[in-house]
Input
Amino acid sequence: MLGNHDRPRVATKRGRAQARVAAVLLLTLRGTPTIYYGDELGLSDVVIEASQVRDPRELREPGLALGRDPVRTPMSWDESENAGFTKANPWLPLNADWPTRNVARMTEESHSILTLYRRLLALRRDCLGIVDR
Output
């Protein structure tokens, strides 16, 4: 497991290039891989303004950067309003790069990190003899 909803994202901690390396390690080593949503897009943490904070810990202890909101922002699905996540205003802001770093766009890019994840997952299935049902 590389990431989760409580800690900074892999792309934030290590950079986008190393996030690709981390994906290769995660999906080629033994064990059960766990992928936190957005890591397959190389999402990074989002800066959350004080007025936007929702996480109880950050609300109780403001300014200590202990909140989890930066990694809990909406998933960016496409280029539509609110990244296709909701028709309403999302509870947290989207990452500024959502118009280009979203599932629909990255699905079309042969060298995107999303394509890398998909290829690695297919390789893993093939090597383990997993049959799609």
User: Anything to note?
Assistant: The chain has a mean pLDDT of 93. Residues 113-128 form the longest helix (16 residues).
